[in-house]
């Protein structure tokens, strides 16, 4: 680290261990109230700061980036996703941008599996029944659900998280299929079947799990047309980004029974969730908890700081995106 301590704006409250380490090495500006900053507030808070440790809840669009004070040279995001940052604008402005891959892979794959089981086995419906004191007793035909063991799992985006989910799903004897830009290298597929064409993956996906980044190409990838190509009674889970799903189309398919259930951890326009999801019994909904374990959030914060430490020491940050 350089002898003069850089000034670091941390936009949200982070785990204590992360804030402590940041305060050891930087002059930190914290956000103890933990309110999300809008563009003008971010600009004001960043006045004179050398770097920003940002989160996915910050909108770093072109206007926000162009509005950043001259002093800001780096943005380390506390997320693997970078869809909240206009990378072209960051590049144009000469900002270093880094993210936090790897460290949230297990936690997010765990939540994808939780969503698959929770949606398939009607977990939130049963939980609600008990909380509402509505359980009148066991019956042989009560709340019959979808069996997961042995079914076919379709994974859209076979990156770190997709591959880790595949490993977990093999413990349920699931047959793994995936769609990716390219097939995995020899020896890494572990028996997973590649589909170069999304439609061909959809046709065999009793369960479909989304793991692609939100980009213009993946925007509303799951829509009325693509849902129609899934087997009847399929189950869809999303731990990627809400923008990958057309909410109206998914809700319609959950209502008609075309889809048996959906498990969702991410939503378009978070924290505003399409009200249609709340009214359905066959949705299993979580408030973006994919990486929300103490171990993972600490690791994400340390990784973001590692990237900033490298940048301010004149080394290339390991997770540099721009
Ligand atoms: C994070 C995520 O919790 O890292 C990501 O891209 O979606 C989540 O796991 C969130 O983005 C924190 O900023």
Overview of the structural elements:
By secondary structure, the protein is α/β, with parallel strands linked by helices. The chain has two domains: 7-103 and 294-312, NAD(P)-binding Rossmann-like Domain (Rossmann fold, 3-Layer(aba) Sandwich); 105-285, 3-Layer(aba) Sandwich (Rossmann fold). Helix content is 34%, strand content 15%. The chain contains twelve helices and twelve strands. It has helices at residues 16-25, 39-45, 62-66, 87-93, 105-120, 123-131, 160-170, 198-202, 224-228, 247-256, 275-278, 294-312; strands at residues 7-10, 27-29, 51-54, 74-77, 96-98, 152-156, 175-179, 193-195, 207-210, 234-238, 259-264, 283-285. Strands 8-7-6-9-10-11-12 form a seven-stranded parallel sheet. α1 links the parallel β1 and β2. The model has no long low-confidence stretch (mean pLDDT 97). The chain binds 2-keto-D-gluconic acid. 2-keto-D-gluconic acid binds at residues 55-56, 78-81, 104, 108, 290-291. Residues 55-56, 78-81, 104, 108, 290-291 line the site of 2-keto-D-gluconic acid (8YV).
